[in-house]
Automatic annotation (TrEMBL):
Name of the molecule in the record: Cation diffusion facilitator family transporter
Membrane-traversing stretches: 12-32, 79-99, 114-133, 172-191, 197-215
PANTHER family, sorted: HUEL-CATION TRANSPORTER, PROTON-COUPLED ZINC ANTIPORTER SLC30A9, MITOCHONDRIAL
Membrane recorded as keyword: yes
Domain Cation efflux protein transmembrane: 13-222
């Protein structure tokens, strides 16, 4: 297990332990106070706990070696289980929070009771969530630094959804705690439980937004996203500089797992090469690419004539004339 993999596992385990403890505290406080916002936060933490279990499954399954049925490995399993984690956040957290919120807003008014219990639990939960959030952002920053990206750039283009998911859900958890605190406080000050319901609805919308962000990211990775632009250009330049190659006609890449890239290149070789020269060139180029860029897991090189009209049309249709 690499340092990055070990860091991801630690991040997920720590977040899961924190969320389980927080969920129990919030549920007890929600039952005592009857606060919709507190019950919404309890559902939020329960959803986060299920999310960590799914992410642990993602880490374990995606680490399996390639076999006959899965010759490219199980790397994409991480995207599948992370997508289920996003669905869990929406179904277990957002839907319940929205239901509790609207029920409180349009239901019978309720008095604020034992608000101090809610405040104490929220403060403790905020402290615990901060510990988990700190570990998650430290892990994401480390991954970004290893790939030469900014934090925001890594969040947008990174191919490891586990630590990103924990960071997003912990950030949403901290914001949700502040929303719950505000809703309970306004309920206590004004005597109107509508504020409690509004806070619950806001928490539900927050969770739905986070679930959408994570779902969109993992769906793109599952469908088959290309490697980063920097890597694609580097591969193209490496191939174009080879003495045996006259032109790189087409270059396709796909993420087949975290830090695992599949490369398919169509190149126009020097016509003076013999069949044996061509075979040796393909092997050498594949070896050189894998050595220069460790994330490359598989390389396929196909000799093609650059003048082929159908192939040129297909490349232009995919990438445009530019």
């Amino acid at each position: 297990m690499s340092e990055s993999e070990g860091g991801s596992t630690l991040t997920v385990v720590l977040a899961g332990a924190m969320n389980l403890a927080i969920a129990v505290m919030k549920l007890i406080a929600g039952v005592i106070t009857g606060s919709a916002a507190m019950l919404a936060e309890a559902a939020h933490s329960v959803a986060d706990t299920f999310t960590e279990l799914l992410l642990l499954t993602a880490l374990k399954v995606s680490d399996r070696p390639a076999d006959r049925r899965h010759p490219f490995g199980y790397g994409k399993a991480r995207y599948f289980w992370s997508l289920l984690a996003a669905v869990s956040i929406f179904v277990s957290g957002a839907v319940f929070a929205l239901y509790e919120g609207f029920s409180t807003i349009f239901g019978e008014p309720e008095e604020s009771t034992s608000a101090h219990v809610a405040y104490i639990v929220l403060i403790i939960a905020f402290a615990l969530e901060t510990v988990s959030w700190t570990q998650a952002q430290r892990q994401v920053r480390r991954e970004a630094a290893e790939r030469g990206r900014t934090l925001l750039g890594h969040l947008r283009h990174g191919d490891d959804p586990t630590s990103k998911t924990v960071l997003y859900e912990d950030s949403a958890a901290l914001l949700g705690l502040l929303i719950a605190f505000s809703g309970i406080g306004l309920h206590q000050i004004t005597g109107s439980s509508v504020w409690d319901g509004i806070a619950s609805v806001a928490i539900g919308l927050l969770l739905a937004f986070v679930a959408y962000l994570l779902g969109r990211t993992n769906a793109g990775l599952l469908i088959g996203r290309q490697a980063s632009a920097d890597l694609v250009y580097a591969i193209r330049d490496t191939l174009a500089a080879a003495r045996e190659i006259e032109a790189v006609v087409d270059l396709q890449t796909m993420l087949i797992g975290t830090d695992r890239v599949l490369v398919c290149a169509r190149v126009d070789f020097d016509d003076a090469l013999t069949a044996a020269d061509l075979e040796r060139a393909c092997v050498r180029l594949a070896t050189d690419l894998a050595a220069a860029y460790p994330v490359i897991a598989e390389v396929f090189i196909e000799p093609v004539p650059r003048s082929d009209v159908a192939l040129r049309s297909a490349v232009l249709a995919r990438y445009g004339k530019r």
